[in-house]
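Lab notebook: predicted structure, single chain.

Context: the supervisor wants predicted structures on file for every construct in the current expression panel, including those that have not yet been purified. This is the next one on the list. No modifications to the sequence; it matches the entry in the shared construct table.
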Amino acid sequence: PGSAHVASARYLLAAFSRWRGDYEQCLLLYEDLLPRLKEGAHIQTYLGCAFMYAVALGERGRYQDALGLLEEGLELGRLAGERYTMPKLSNALGWVYRELGQYERALVCNTEALAAAHALADGGMPRFTEIECQSLIDLGESHLALEDLPSARRHLESVYNNVDRQKYSFCRPRWFPRCLLGLVQYHLQAGQPTQAQHMLHAFRDHQ
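Prediction complete. Output recorded below exactly as produced.
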């Protein structure tokens, strides 16, 4: 119990619990772990755990708890000058606002996440292309909800047109299907059923 590796083990167990759909176990592990990390862990470690915990809270419908945790995390990150986790926190905050139907606020958060991800990717951290793709899709979905079809198409097609490039290759399994479904919705809202059907076939072929 006193091992320095206990916190890492709890973090991974919580993540695996969430990925297999055991949200209650996931939340229990994070609830125990987060205060300990806040007291003595590196800020990046704490914010990474706060991000995962907030997403798990949102997935259980506890949106206000998730909002509070994400907003606190962003403030702590700004004060500490932390950059690595900030795009994830901003993007997750946008997701929560979108789930609550607050699309304008979601757009602000996802735009901030996209800018931060670009800055890190351009600085030699290509892994942030994943956050870039997620932010673009989230922006597209919010614009669809607001019926701003040109903006929705611009963001979704940015992912569609880039996903075959080498630096985006690891985004293809996870984010490309969401992009295709977003484009299906775009074409339906735009009154283009043939193009929507084409994107739906692309989605099925990808699966």
